[in-house]
Amino acid sequence: MKHGGSVLGRCRYLLKDATKAEDAMHDVFARALTHGEDFRAESSPLTWLMKIATHHCLNQLRGERAGWRQWFERDAAARPEGHGGQEAMETRDLVRRLLARVDVETQAAAIHYHVDGMTLEEVAALLGRSVPTIRKRLEHFAALGGEELKVP
Amino acid sequence: MSAHESEWTLRRLSAGELAATEAARVQAHAASCEACAQALRGIHEAQARFEADVPFERFEAGVEQALRRQRDAARPPPRRWVATTVAIAASLLVVVLVRPLLGSSAESGDTGGLNRLKGGATAELRIGGGLGPQREAIPGRPEAIEPGERVMLGYKAGTHRYVAALSVDAIGEVTPLHPEDGASAPVASGGRQHWLPGGWEFTGSGAERVIVVLSDEPLPQETLVEAARRAFAQADGDVERMDELEVPGAQTHWVLRKP
């Protein structure tokens, strides 16, 4: 349960629906139980759970018919997860609005980098890609958005 | 370098995942930095809200229900597949429809497009039965399918003696296709191309990976399902990026994109 807040926050951020988010969170923890070996082998269970939660929700959105359209129509009152003041909230919201325009790997990279605040190296390790590849994907993502998404 | 700790570092501190020296450094920083202290409080408050909103009993019941859902999804659910009798009828239609295509390649001796495997084996996935043209899916090149289209799987066993087929959908649900349970089936006799009985209609949306495994020994479907789940997890839950299953034998993968 100690990672529940983080996982539920990720599911709410992406699915923008409280009930779907809680179901998704249950799915993520169920997967942690069925993949117990992988989960226990992780030096950071939080990283494993957040990766699975992110992929699970992105897959769910892709799997829903007209998912992204419905996603945009969902109640915008779904508050972006996290903290860090108005500027950070706006960045998270911007990231979320741009997700539908990129492939799934760029989506995951953008979420882990801009929302989780991971470093390029951490995102690259998590997604099993090289740092230059992740940088390239994030630069492509930034080109869709604004100054605040630029990768230093 | 940022003057503040990243949210990820603070989240890992809160989860107790930082090494002692790193944890002490971050804690010391947060003690003297209001922005990071506030961020850390935000993380603690989110966890406290979660624990208040979702009591352990509800959490536990929800996870158990999800486990049951995942287990049920691993079996062939009727909603995803045409019923056996319908499948047999449908397969007759598909066989009739694909015969001219099969004939044209077989008669000309042209096996281009077939996936060649070790030991003289080949495997083939044909799509048909819908409004679109009959066509063959190529391994490594995702193929879009339309509503109502069915899939047939063919193989030439070469030196292999057993065959099995399964599929994995976008959320990692693994479904044995042939046989539906037990171990992989003995291959049909004769060196020509054979088609697995029945046809499959993949409903829902998103990607679906279809896998045929030819082996020298019978492989239990449970072993294949577990191997598929591992490969899905190793691909970070992206069914389009899965590697080969860690099982003996020769295997062919296709990715279909459902409407």
What do these coordinates show?
The complex is a heterodimer of chains A (152) and B (259). In chain A, 72% of the residues lie in helices and 0% in strands. Chain A has 152 residues and is an all-alpha fold. Chain A folds into two domains: 79 residues, Rna Polymerase Sigma Factor, Chain: A; 69 residues, Arc Repressor Mutant, subunit A (Orthogonal Bundle), CATH 1.10.10.10. About 5% of the residues of chain A have low confidence. With 259 residues, chain B is α+β, with helices and mostly antiparallel strands. Chain B has two domains: 68 residues, no CATH class; 181 residues, no CATH class. Classes of the chains: A mainly alpha (152), B alpha+beta (259). At the A-B interface, helix 1, helix 2, helix 4 and helix 7 of A face helix 1, helix 3 and helix 4 of B.
The CATH class of the largest domain in chain A: Mainly Alpha
In oligomeric terms, what are we looking at? heterodimer
Q: How many β-strand runs of chain A?
A: 0
Number of helices of chain B: 6
- CATH architecture annotation of the largest domain in chain A: Orthogonal Bundle
The portion of residues assigned to helices of chain B is 25-40%
Key terms for this structure?
heterodimer, A: 152 residues, mainly alpha, Rna Polymerase Sigma Factor, Chain: A, Arc Repressor Mutant, subunit A, 2 domains, 9 helices, B: 259 residues, alpha+beta, six-stranded mixed β-sheet, 6 helices, 38% helix
